Amino acid sequence: MVEVDADETYIAIVTRGRVKQSVFGANGREKILYILQPGEIFGEFAYLGGGKDLIIGQAMEYSEVSVIFEDKLNRILSNNLEAYKYIAHSMCRKFRILMMQMSDLIFKDSMGRLCDILLRLYHQQGRVTENGHLIDLPLTHENLAHLIGCDRVTVTRGLNRLRKEGIIDVDRKKIIIKELDRLEDYV
């Protein structure tokens, strides 16, 4: 968990590992909004928009982050248009991700959302291997459920269906897409 004094404004840069950013409902249910990898930032909404950041960051594996507090950040950004563009790019990217998630929740069933997130994660964090298209991210069924807004049992059923159809394989929390075209057909 990333913990910084709640009164401090900052931007953090993921330098190693992967950090998920989530919100939690009053009932404790988690919704994963983003999975950040090295070079990506968080805290920019609170820095530029003011107020408290309600998004919780948690490492998904061993991770390191560098934190830049507001006064130093102001000095860095005062004459650095490229740094401002990077922050704006990060915010736009996250906004697009949220819009896609909202659209999926409204217009797709749970199987469509599952297949869509597998494709997105592959394009963001994947690579081709001799066994297929590997999503190079340690994912539990619970993580996937929190990403697509359903329960773990629904994700397990969907993954089992895809596995039986020969579309995917799962090996130690890593998902291998065997038939990319057939997975896209579900979306």
Topology at a glance:
Blueprint: E1 10-16, E2 19-24, E3 30-36, E4 41-42, H1 44-49, E5 56-59, E6 64-69, H2 70-77, H3 81-107, H4 110-125, E7 126-129, E8 132-135, H5 141-148, H6 152-164, E9 168-171, E10 174-177, H7 180-186
Antiparallel strand pairs: 1-4, 1-6, 2-3, 2-5, 7-8, 8-10, 9-10
Using brief descriptors, characterize the structure shown.
alpha+beta, Jelly Rolls, 7 helices, 45% helix, 4-stranded antiparallel β-sheet, Arc Repressor Mutant, subunit A, 2 domains, 3-stranded antiparallel β-sheet, 26% strand, 187 residues
Description:
The model has no long low-confidence stretch (mean pLDDT 92). The chain has seven helices and ten strands. The strands form three sheets. The protein has a four-stranded antiparallel beta sheet. By secondary structure, it is α+β, with helices and mostly antiparallel strands. The protein has helices at residues 44-49, 70-77, 81-107, 110-125, 141-148, 152-164, 180-186; strands at residues 10-16, 19-24, 30-36, 41-42, 56-59, 64-69, 126-129, 132-135, 168-171, 174-177.
Quick structural overview:
This protein is 45% helix and 26% strand. The protein is α+β, with helices and mostly antiparallel strands and 187 residues long. Strand 2 and strand 3 (30-36) form a beta hairpin.
